[in-house]
Design a protein that fits this description.
The protein has helices at about 5-35, 45, 55-70, 100-110, and strands spanning about 75-80, 85-90, 120-125, 140-145. With about 150 residues, the protein is of the alpha+beta class.
Length: about 150
């Protein structure tokens, strides 16, 4: 068979395959368009993400009591409206504090005070004496309690 004859057979096959592919795409689109439970395209599903459930006051107090009973804890602050809710002040002895932050996550879990977004920050007690401002400036470690991974 000559090259010309070969190309005459290939051209209709390529066009035919393209038409079949186009038809499949269109049928799939029509099928998806008919689904009632399809996610909205305008981003409404993203905007309706619910905040994690609020912890009961007695759970928060139990967690605070357990944390303050730890020998290394000098002070602590809890604010559920912050990205990092638990700020715990310890003496800076120059060592890494990721492990300590992870341990405090376990203490929170033991007291029922973990949510999907709980984070713990260990701060230098000497520099952040009042625990009111500049937590990030005096952070020794920050851990996401859900993943156990250091943050920042």
């Amino acid at each position: 068979m000559s090259d010309r004859a070969s190309s005459q057979f290939k051209t209709p096959i390529i066009y035919g395959a393209g038409l079949v592919a186009l038809a499949l795409v269109m049928l799939t689109g029509l099928r998806l368009a008919g689904q009632e439970d399809a996610a909205p395209v305008d981003g409404a599903a993203i905007q309706s993400v619910e905040a994690p459930p609020a912890l009961a006051p007695e759970v928060i107090q139990s967690a605070k009591d357990a944390l303050i009973a730890e020998p290394k804890v000098l002070n602590l602050a809890y604010d559920p409206s912050l990205e990092v809710q638990w700020n715990i002040a310890v003496a800076d002895d120059g060592t890494r504090r990721d492990g300590l932050a992870s341990y405090f996550c376990m203490v929170l879990g033991d007291n029922g005070a973990l949510t999907d977004s709980t984070k713990v920050r260990i701060v230098d007690a000497e520099k952040a004496s009042d625990l009111k401002d500049a937590y990030r400036d005096y952070a020794l470690a920050t851990v996401d309690c859900t993943s156990g991974q250091p943050v920042g």
